[in-house]
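Format notes (please read before filing issues)

Several people have asked whether sequences and structure tokens are stored in separate files. They are not. Every record keeps both together, in the order shown below: the sequence lines, then the token lines. Line labels are part of the format and must not be stripped during preprocessing.
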Amino acid sequence: METVAIVKCPDYKKTTVKDAISRIFDLIGFDFPSGVLLKPNMLSARNPDEAVTTHSVILEVLSELLPHPVFIGDSPPNTSKTIEYYWNQCQYEDVSKKTKAKLVKLEGKSSIFTLNVKGRKVNFPVSSFAFQHPVFNLPKFKTHNITILTCCMKNLYGLIPGYPKGLLHTEFPEPEYFNHFIVEFYQLLKETVVFNIVDAVEVMDKNGPSSGRKKYYGYLIAGKNGVCVDFVCATLAGLKIHEVPFLRIYENIYGIPKVKIIGDQPENIPGFQVPSSSAIFKMQENRFMSGIIRTMANQLNIIPVINHNICVKCMECVKVCPARAISNDLKIDRKKCINCLCCFEVCPNRAINVRKSFLARIILP
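Then the structure lines:
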């Protein structure tokens, strides 16, 4: 049986966060080695108050509590921004200056791995740093249109360097295959992950992971087993295992261990809303409808749409698109678009929305 701790953390004041994390360590108990890599969610170059990235105060507290050296690193999507710009905007640079934790670039030396995902073999790099240092996984509690939730398991995807990470979407354009990849990728890395703490003081629902709705919750969720922590997070969001595709897949292949919850016993997140894509996943539970979805995959989906009234032509979407489906005049070629929604995730001005395709608007609720 695996243990997951839920601990109240009412705000991001340093003393509050330190008390909450100290209580987590007391409840679960763990002697952390030196040389830990703190792996936050650094999806976008955003201020911590936007609830897109793991809050910097959590990293600051851990950098003070854990034995040094301590490293901080994540590989954001492939955009025109430098990694130093991300560090500055997310306030991780300030953490490094205050605590002497070292910021590291994960785009350097990598190890190449091969996974067989439902009969598809794929080669991809993973930062060698992740295998040279114990990983302390620090995801942000958010929704995601491809995985429904993004917490511990999905957060490890950031250990793949930026450009290859985008290319993997072209290998697995179908959400079901991509979720299978997330499961097998977690299996590959799980022995390197020593602990997980999910930042759920403020969460994001609706169409996350960067343009959803920020909601206050006031908790940290932690444990050694990332799958079990994700299962608890799904439960707190009011979701069953079969409603979160990577959890459903993991349960079917490997089985999710039984979980003992310790610490606080909060109510589920009030009014938590899943992303638009959840309706498609629900249809897949019906064997007949699942066949229809596979047949009409290019017509029945969630698509990105650029709002040109808001767009400032920063060209981040053009740079990040793995299918090269967005032209320099910012038009999306629907024949090339694989609906990976990378453009939606990285847009710094929320100028890209997601909506149901024409057929999806007719069929889906």
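For reference, the curators noted about this record: The first helix runs from residue 14 to 28. The chain has a mean pLDDT of 92.
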